[in-house]
Amino acid sequence: MTRRNTPRIAFIGFGEAGQAIASGLRDEGVTDIAAWDILFLKPEGDKLKAAGTKAGIRLATSAADAVADSDVIIATVTAASSLEAAQSIVPHLSGNPYYLDINSVSPGRKIATAELLVGKARYVDVAVIAPIHPKRHRTPLLIAGPHAEAIAPLLSELTMQLKIVSDVTGKAAAIKMIRSVMIKGIEALTYECFLAAERADLLEEVTVSLKNNYPGIDWQETATYNLERMASHGERRAAEMEESAATLRELGLEPLMAEGTVAHQRAMGRLGKTDAVRATLDKDRAAILAAISRAQG
């Protein structure tokens, strides 16, 4: 790269996370940013391209075009596509760029991706540990791997908020995947508990009972937030929880709770696409729960 604070950056995958980070870096003054997403070739990719154009991102014509002469590649694809995304660019890499794998996948998948890129790119295991909005590129990150320490100054210079957790690839992913058992599991429990309460016509009574045990939690606000997150992002979160389940298996644990969370997240993600449920997502938990019950019949 010509100067440490002016890297040439390529995004592989340009969904919510890619758009948020790219637009934040653009506002930070990084001018040479390209993006590629396989959806660019389909009608459903029009919104992605429009977001890129609005942010001043160069829309690449292919993965090869995106990564050409790049200093840093940031992979933000779906969990199921993380290894395939890396495979798609291997023949086109030059100059030994950094490869920031932000995808929410198991440590085993991150290790496999790192091995694929040996001699082609400097792999960095990255975990996003908070919602990508509103902080965008400043959302807290954990990074790990043998190249984490080398890239940390550049990322910090770009005002990215990060913590090096290990020089071993997979450790950042492990933290995220294990904590997701709790974070996304609580969302799923919220859905199951409060939907049952709504159907029993005991929503307020159950809420008061929970407050007795957990006085520090605002259950009305928590339930509304968790239900909205699941309805808006449930299918993606289900895929991420499948990676959490894979992580637990890698550790010799049976992912019973994680698999239940997968089912609830996926179900809510599908319900969230219905007009009836989507219309309530800016309302409170009672309205969302009532819409869910009606949608489920």
Task: Let me know the average pLDDT.
Answer: 96
CATH domain fold name of the largest domain: Rossmann fold
Poorly predicted regions: none
Structural class: alpha/beta
The count of domains is: 2
CATH superfamily grouping of the largest domain: NAD(P)-binding Rossmann-like Domain
Number of strands: 8
Helix percentage range: 40-55%
Ordered list of secondary-structure elements with their pairings:
Elements: E1 9-12, H1 16-27, E2 33-36, H2 46-55, E3 58-59, H3 63-67, E4 72-75, H4 82-89, E5 98-101, H5 107-116, E6 122-128, E7 141-144, H6 148-157, E8 162-166, H7 171-199, H8 203-213, H9 219-250, H10 256-271, H11 275-278, H12 285-296
Parallel strand pairs: 1-2, 1-4, 2-3, 4-5, 5-6, 7-8
Antiparallel strand pairs: 6-7
Domain Phosphogluconate dehydrogenase NAD-binding putative C-terminal: 197-267
Domain Pyrroline-5-carboxylate reductase catalytic N-terminal: 8-94
Protein name: NAD(P)-dependent oxidoreductase
Main features:
single chain; about 300 residues; alpha/beta; Rossmann fold; N-(1-d-carboxylethyl)-l-norvaline Dehydrogenase, domain 2; 2 domains; eight-stranded mixed sheet; 12 helices; 8 strands; NAD(P)-bd_dom_sf; HIBADH-related_NP60_sf; 6PGD_dom2
Give a nutshell description of this structure:
With 297 residues, the protein is α/β, with parallel strands linked by helices.
Task: Please provide a written account of the structure.
The structure is a single chain. The chain has 297 residues and is an alpha/beta fold. It folds into two domains: 9-169, 3-Layer(aba) Sandwich (Rossmann fold), CATH 3.40.50.720; 173-296, N-(1-d-carboxylethyl)-l-norvaline Dehydrogenase, domain 2 (Orthogonal Bundle). The protein is 54% helix and 11% strand. It has an eight-stranded mixed β-sheet, with helices on both faces. It is globular and about 65 Å long.
